[in-house]
Amino acid sequence: MNLKSKTAVVTGSTSGIGLAIARAFAKEGASIVINGLGAPDEIEKARAGIESEFGVKAVYSPADMTKPDQIEEMVRLGETTFGSVDILVNNAGIQFVSPIEDFPVEKWDQIIAINLNSAFHSIRAAVPGMKARKWGRIINTASAHSLVASPYKAAYVAAKHGITGLTKTVALELATHGITVNCISPGYVWTPLVEKQIPDTMKARGLTKEQVINDVMLEAQPTKQFVTVDQVAALAVFLSSDAASQITGANLSMDGGWTAK
């Protein structure tokens, strides 16, 4: 697939799933706007790596996903630098694990802001340009937790269920404009986010690291394997192809059979 005339904005793309998605689009020739947290030298290494490995242009937006004005500026950066934002991937996300009665209010607010509200703000900013060009792809990274729940993850599960509803609504609004809107719902993917959950889950459930991995995380996935970041990225690329032009409003599970149960 040739995406040489396209620009992709990928939030939360300085590591993990987001970086894999940004690199996969770059491999197909797209210009890239990456965004996310991390050490400046690591971010620059990721950005420069995209340019040198794939021969495309990549810029970094430091937009804070809790700040609507900065999210709008990120979209404008793509438009002013490359002339358009054709593909928007809302991938930024954080997690916090706690019993509901102890769940810090500020953590609830932060997770809803980053995992759900940021997608609304970026879509709102990107849609006018996509409508004008009569082409666009919006891909939201949801989760198996957009379809089912797990204990101690109230904010995350609520946000991911919200992403599914947002995806369906916007897909219906944009169905006649050449713009598709879908979400990908991975199960457990081996990323820094998942790795960081392990100590919190150990504490919340009184388990060892091995028990968390095998009895909590992979217990949910019948294949007993983690999803890879490259598998998620490959699906994102497919959803941006002409072959996927009639896939819209869909929640595509990639969870080793978790939600089939």
What does this structure look like?
This protein has a single domain, classed as NAD(P)-binding Rossmann-like Domain (Rossmann fold). The protein has helices at residues 16-27, 40-54, 68-82, 105-133, 154-173, 192-205, 209-217, 229-239; strands at residues 7-10, 31-35, 58-61, 87-90, 136-141, 179-186, 251-254. With 261 residues, the protein is α/β, with parallel strands linked by helices.
What distinguishing features does this structure have?
261 residues; alpha/beta; Rossmann fold; Sc_DH/Rdtase_CS; SDR_fam; NAD(P)-bd_dom_sf; 3-hydroxybutyrate dehydrogenase activity
> What percent of the residues sit in helical stretches (DSSP H or I)?
40-55%
The helix-strand sequence is EHEHEHEHEHEHHHE
Distance between the termini: 35 Å
CATH architecture: 3-Layer(aba) Sandwich
Integer-rounded radius of gyration: 18 Å
Mean pLDDT, as a whole number? Answer: 96
Strand content: 5-15%
Number of domains: 1
Tally the helices: what do you get? 8
What structural category do the secondary elements indicate? alpha/beta
CATH-assigned fold name = Rossmann fold
Task: Tell how many strands the DSSP assignment holds.
Answer: 7
Q: How would a textbook summarize the main sheet?
A: 7 strands, parallel
What's the overall geometry?
A: globular
Q: So, the CATH homologous superfamily?
A: NAD(P)-binding Rossmann-like Domain
Query: Which residues sit in consecutive blocks of at least 5 with pLDDT less than 50?
Result: none
Question: Could you give the order of strands across the largest sheet?
Answer: 3-2-1-4-5-6-7
